[in-house]
């Protein structure tokens, strides 16, 4: 009878009848693939954990810096500083505008004085036909020029030996400056005129 046979023989016959070799081969390949996948997954997981640790440390550092910045920031002081800077900006702008207006006024005044000086030079000693008032006979061209220069803040001093005017004292009352200029004939009158206007 069938049951009288050895169990091992029966099992061996069953194995041969079911042909499980391809299944075992498939299971082996699957097991190998699972092992490789598990190893790859483990490596990837370790890499992600390392990145996470690095990012956590960076976040902690940034959080500390943020807390320090927030704790040291005073909104009221910041607002006060902004207001102060705005006021300073408007003050500087107003000063610049005032200086520009004053510069234009001084330029106009300078042109008027130059025109008056040219008129006086053109009138000569007697004043010409354009003279509006009588002059003393002793009031010559040099005296008139000295008066004009003195009105501008320039005092000409003559040389005691030659009588020639070779020194000028320029006073700038606005700046509180005094300049003494020795006049040398090797420089032109145009040079000294420009220097005097710049000093004034």
TrEMBL record:
Where does the UniProt entry say this protein principally localizes? cytoplasm
Q: Which GO terms fall under biological process for this protein? A: cell division; chromosome segregation
Locate the coiled-coil region(s) and give their ranges. 96-123
Q: Does the keyword Metal-binding apply?
A: no
Listed A to Z, the keywords are: Cell cycle, Cell division, Centromere, Chromosome, Coiled coil, Kinetochore, Mitosis, Nucleus
Compartments in which it is found? Cytoplasm, Cytoskeleton, Microtubule organizing center; Nucleus; Chromosome, Centromere, Kinetochore
- GO CC annotation: microtubule organizing center; Ndc80 complex; nucleus
Q: Does the keyword Cell division apply?
A: yes
Question: Which GO MF term does the entry hold, naming one?
Answer: microtubule binding
The cross-references to SUPFAM superfamilies, in alphabetical order and at most eight, read: Kinetochore globular domain
- Which InterPro entries does this one have? Ndc80_Spc24, Spc24_Fungi_globular_sf
Q: Subunit info?
A: Component of the NDC80 complex.
Summary of the function given for this chain in its UniProt record? Acts as a component of the essential kinetochore-associated NDC80 complex, which is required for chromosome segregation and spindle checkpoint activity.
Family (UniProt): Belongs to the SPC24 family.
The record's section on PANTHER family has: KINETOCHORE PROTEIN SPC24 (PTHR22142:SF2), PTHR22142
What is the protein's name according to its record?
Answer: Kinetochore protein Spc24
Its source organism is Eremomyces bilateralis CBS 781.70
